[in-house]
Amino acid sequence: MRLAGSGIIVAGGSSGLGLAAVRHLARAGAKVGVLDLKRNPELGGPFALADVSNPDAVAAAMDALAAELPGIHALLNTTGTGHSGISAGPAKKVTPEGFRRVLDVNTLGSFILAQAAADRMVGNARDANGERGVIINTSSIVAFEGQIGTAAYAAAKAGIHGMTLPLAREFARYGIRVLAIAPGIFETPMFSNARGPMVAWLREQVQFPARPGHAEEFAGFVAHAIANPMLNGTVVRLDGAYRVPPGRHDWWEMDS
User: Rounded to two decimals, what is the model's pTM?
Assistant: First the structure.
């Protein structure tokens, strides 16, 4: 799919990886709208507010953005939330309510966004490859190797993995691709400002390049994924050969 002139929605585009993608895609000539819980004052262009776990809010936001874009040709979802900590014992921190919210935003929200985007993409004209749209969700390498304290987040991101191929197979008849990106650690403000032994440990696990990823590297892959019609039905790791070890209990127990 051509980037130039396409209408692209970035959910979670006000910060972090989503913000980098918004800027990169706009430089490539795409018309980009942002769906998020708050607007970034540094960004112009179409914006709509929505909690991605609310299907009515998402539908209204997409319709509002579509009215300001040349249609919806691609969706990038970088939204997410976490609920980390020990799940049992005296340092127990994870609650069923917190776990449920992580599933609602990360897993259910990813489905709600994908369904709403696909409902609108089916009306697009097919391009020269027969393509009508691309849907990209953001997972995490934690879904493959979750360290101690990440049960809720790992489960929620694994749900994104589980829906990727079935949705790609279902939407194939409409010419809509579905894939997911599983990033390792990236230098977003949230990670760069974090401190402590676990953060230092996380940085040491990246093999090559021996550093966290740059947000622009994530954005560059998003642009490639939109443009490459053979990327479909798969979850792509973007992690510098990072494999997450088990971690340590005492990192969480110190915070209890």
Answer: 0.92
Q: In terms of residue numbers, what domain contains 245?
A: 7-253
Look at strands 74-77 and 7-11 and give their pairing: parallel
Phi/psi region, residue 247 (left: phi>0; alpha: psi -120 to 50; beta: rest), is: left
Confidence band of 255 (pLDDT split at 50, 70, 90):
low
pLDDT tens for each residue of 59-114: 999 999 999 999 999 999 999 988 888 788 888 888 999 999 999 999 999 999 99
Please report, for the domain that includes residue 68, its CATH number.
3.40.50.720
2 part of a folded domain: no
Residues acting as catalytic residues: 153
Residue 39 inside a domain? The answer is yes
- Identify which of 94, 98, 116 has the alpha carbon closest to the alpha carbon of residue 106: 98
Buried b (16+ CB within 10 A) or exposed e, 149-174: bbbbbbbbbbbbbebbbebbeebeeb
**Residue 13 contacts residue 35 (beta carbons within 8 Å):** yes
